[in-house]
Structure formats: structure tokens, C-alpha cells
Amino acid sequence: MADLLVIAYPTEAAAEEIRSKLFELQKEYLIELGDACIAVKRPDGSVKLNQVFNTTAAGAAGGALWGTLIGMLFLNPLVGAAIGAGAGALSGKLTDVGINDAFIKEVAASLHNGDAALFLLIRKVTPDKVLARLQGTGGKIMRSSFDETKEAALRAALAAPDAG
User: Fold this and answer.
1) Which pTM value belongs to this model?
2) Any residues with CB less than 8 A from the CB of 161 and at least 6 apart, and which?
3) What is the arithmetic mean of pLDDT over 130-150?
4) Which of 11-25, 48-62, 127-141 has the lowest mean pLDDT?
5) What domains, with CATH codes, occur in the chain?
């Protein structure tokens, strides 16, 4: 079972810095993320999503490959690649992986203009080591599926002075 965590930051750069730090922790097998998306509220009120995995590009690449292979059967691989890339990009754009985009936009709509929110889908975590690395990074918890004790420990770690 995965946990959902949403942390608000004053800037997109601050949220990106924490996401990068979490990716480093993932390489050390201290946390396993199912998704890590940053949503930024623009001055016009719209919400921009900065996702890790671009499904449109992946769909286009896969579609181009399959289109080329099928196009070879009909002696026209370039047309097959073009049609396959278009179909793959369309299917990739319609695919939603990880945290639901509509949910992300709904929650991010409550941010102030220019603020960012880091959305995390956490599959596994070593809490004591991850909290130590996140100590003093700031941020305000907007949503969490953690129990009260884990959430309180996270709030304290985010608000604590940086350990080093």
C-alpha cells in the first residue's frame, strides 16, 4: 500500500530541490517513490504540472517503433513510423500514470500564485533516515495519508533547523 504526501513550497525551485534529494535517497534504497510530481500555480491561476515521466514522448517513441515494423510489412516503413508515432503520442497523452492529474490540479488550485506543491506517492520508506535528510528543508504539509505520529514527525523535521 502506498502513501500520498503533498508538501507546499514557496517556489518551484525549492520543490525541485527536495524532489532531487528524494531521488538521491531512492538510489540509496531509503525510499521507493511511485510518483513525484510538482505542480506550480501560475499568476493567471492555471496550474502547470512538472512530471517525472512524459507519457506522450514515450508513447510516440513506442508507436514509431511499432509503426516502422508494421510499415515494413507493407514496404513503407516511413509512413508506418509517422502514423505509429502519432497514434502512440495520442495514446500517451491520454494515459495517466501515478497520481491522478485531476486530483493534482484540484489540490494545487488552493496554492498562492507562484507557489509550488510536491506530490509524492511513497511505496516504501525508511522513516528515520529519510526524515534526518529532510530536516530543515521547510515546506508545509497540505495532504497526507500518514497516521498522526508519522505526520507529526514529518512536520517537525521540515520545520526544524537544518542539521548540516
Assistant:
1) 0.75
2) 135, 136
3) 91
4) 48-62
5) 3-52+109-159 (3.30.70), 55-93 (no CATH)
